[in-house]
Amino acid sequence: MFDVGVFALFSWPPFPQGQGRGDFTGLTPDSKGISDETIKPVDERVEEWLSPSIPMKRELKPEEHAEIVKAIAAGDRVKATSLYLSATEGDLTTAQNFIKTLIVEKQAAQSQQSVKEGG
Prior knowledge:
Oligomer: single chain
Shape: elongated
Distance between the termini: 77 Å
Largest sheet: none
Radius of gyration: 27 Å
Structural class: mainly alpha
């Protein structure tokens, strides 16, 4: 039963004689009205993909920043991320990077404090 179904998937749709799936003779970018100006180089597309196209709507207010820091101190990264997203209307990646930066800064401050107390 599966043999017939698998065969049907690979044999459909039928191609006319001499025209297989890889036969693109006669197709050129010019035949479809595509010019070099409409095709972006891969590097340009990758750069657009990597850089956020939607900037943060607004900066954090000091009280919002303090609330996020409080959530991080309580160990609630999800709440901190949610607060950031709600406040800035930014994207998730930027929010996560912001939270990670705050965590690293907090850890560095704690480490410096322990060095001062110990030494």
